[in-house]
Amino acid sequence: MLQTLYQVPEYKEELIYPAVCKMMEGLGIAQDIRPGLKVAIKPNLVMAKSPAYPVTTHPFVIKAVARWLREQGVEDIVLAESSGGLYNSEYMKNVYHVCGLRQLEPEVKLNMDFSAKTVNCPGGFSNHSFHIITPILEADYVINICKLKTHAMTGYSGGIKNLFGTIPGLEKPQMHYRWPDIQDFSRMLLELAQTVNPQLTVIDAIDAMEGNGPTGGSSHPLGLLLGARDFYTQDYFAAGLMGLDPMKIEMIRQAVEKGLAKPDEIELTGDPVPENLTPFQLPDTHKLDFTGAFPKFLQKPVAFLGGKLFKSYPQLNRELCVGCGKCAESCPAHIIKIENKKAKFRRKGCISCFCCQEMCPMKAISVKKAL
Ligand code: SF4
Ligand code: SF4
């Protein structure tokens, strides 16, 4: 598996574009591309947040990929994403604006088709199909451009996790509700990844996120741009760069087990891995997870027996809460209400998915153990 890595110390177009050109050459992407091709770029636009924060894919990275595509004669390029929250014109216009993506027009079309279609997922474990946003399904070629981050629920967010944004709007929290267990949820993510199956995945790790990702963490710059055709193995590699044990990230562990990720076959090309990398801070949900201290065969029973005592719950900082309701909108269990301009959580029914924490723009939600 060919893994490209380029050192790009900051978000400057004159640094990013040459790195993207070398990446495309290194991976032989020009062989796939022809004029007339319909290309969808799938960024990470989890919420409306300025590119000054390491929450969303930086517009300069998307711009560089689009510029390279246009130089190959590709004119039909669409940016296709369903953020956390609603999937409609008003919501996405605000996301495009705040995330600094208007500068991509008119070369890149910012998707305004909010339909979705059902596609079969042969071998799906409980659901044999996925409902996926139309521009992704209509594209001849999908380029996944994700942001490197820690993640409260999955531990890590890179290429595989980014594809969850191909599920329209508030169907995403419903899928959390349907598969609250991390093993089932990770399995679903891998089946979705196999269904979307992007041809190229670029990881924006020029600035990355540590701590309470994917939205409430802090900056941990790596100064790196990664690219590979095999996004499963690339996630294994990128998690290692963050100082995480990839085999403790359930979706990556399952990808290795299924033979999708092949860590023994990584062939690195481009720049060397920087020597001064420091480990990323974990999300609070993972810092508080004591089950890893037990041998693997005991972890599930311990987690089960620990039950409610050791379960993590969201905790509100009332002073930071502005009562915007984004947490309530994204809660799949419908246990959050807005009362007197503050969020109010009911603990009963909480599945500890932390969609509420992910969507809170004020970082007003932290993690608490019942005990
Ligand atoms: S907790 Fe956050 S998302 Fe929820 S209402 Fe308060 S500020 Fe908004
Ligand atoms: S309260 Fe938060 S963690 Fe609990 S189910 Fe709702 S969104 Fe998930």
Sequence-ordered SSE layout with sheet pairings:
Layout: E1 2-7, H1 13-27, E2 38-42, H2 59-71, E3 76-79, H3 89-98, E4 109-110, E5 116-120, E6 129-133, H4 134-138, E7 141-151, E8 155-157, H5 159-162, H6 171-178, H7 182-196, E9 200-210, E10 218-228, H8 231-241, H9 250-257, E11 267-270, H10 284-287, H11 296-310, E12 312-316, H12 326-330, E13 336-339, E14 342-345, H13 355-359, E15 365-369
Parallel strand pairs: 1-11, 2-3, 2-7, 3-4, 7-9
Antiparallel strand pairs: 1-10, 5-6, 7-8, 9-10, 12-15, 13-14
Helix pairs in contact: 1-2, 7-9
This protein binds iron/sulfur cluster (2 copies).
Explain the overall architecture:
With 371 residues, the chain is of the alpha/beta class. The protein contains 13 helices and 15 strands. It has 2 domains: 2-270, 3-Layer(aba) Sandwich (Rossmann fold); 288-369, 2-Layer Sandwich (Alpha-Beta Plaits), CATH 3.30.70.20. The protein has helices at residues 13-27, 59-71, 89-98, 134-138, 159-162, 171-178, 182-196, 231-241, 250-257, 284-287, 296-310, 326-330, 355-359, and strands at residues 2-7, 38-42, 76-79, 109-110, 116-120, 129-133, 141-151, 155-157, 200-210, 218-228, 267-270, 312-316, 336-339, 342-345, 365-369. Strand 3, helix 3 (89-98) and strand 4 (109-110) form a beta-alpha-beta unit. The radius of gyration is 20 Å and the shape is globular. Bound molecules: iron/sulfur cluster (2 copies). One iron/sulfur cluster binds next to helix 12.
